[in-house]
């Protein structure tokens, strides 16, 4: 699971990933090419940006909904995987391609992308807070048992 710092970094960098070409250029070391279905072209068309790490060379993240997928198989269909795991993604439900967007369309996409990011951040912060509360409660309870 992505941590808060990774999520923030990706959100900030992905404002340049509305265009297919920018996403496609991120697949420099993508392991699936010839004889595969999930090629860099199909990954980029489905909204994914390649976000590899040392231990996870096939991590891809949607620039819009920030869903992270890994463990790709050569025959996976990026668009159907995206639809299956994030059916309400604003990129998938958008009627216009980036090249057809007006400035107002782009503004609305960015506003919605910000909402998705803030919602994810709130969920992560609440999860950290819950863990902290549970740890503190555990410590206090153990002191009462003495
Ligand atoms: Zn998405």
UniProtKB/TrEMBL annotation:
SUPFAM superfamilies: Inhibitor of apoptosis (IAP) repeat (SSF57924). Pfam families: BIR. One of its GO terms (cellular component) is spindle. Belongs to the IAP family. Signal peptide: none annotated. It is found in: Chromosome, Centromere; Cytoplasm, Cytoskeleton, Spindle; Nucleus. It comes from Pogonophryne albipinna. PANTHER family: BACULOVIRAL IAP REPEAT-CONTAINING PROTEIN 5.1, DETERIN. InterPro entries: Baculoviral_IAP, BIR_rpt. This is Survivin. PROSITE patterns: BIR_REPEAT_2 (PS50143). The lineage of its organism: Eukaryota, Metazoa, Chordata, Craniata, Vertebrata. GO terms for molecular function: metal ion binding. One of its GO terms (biological process) is chromosome segregation. Keywords: Cell cycle, Cell division, Centromere, Chromosome, Chromosome partition, Cytoplasm, Cytoskeleton, Metal-binding, Mitosis, Nucleus, Phosphoprotein, Ubl conjugation, Zinc.
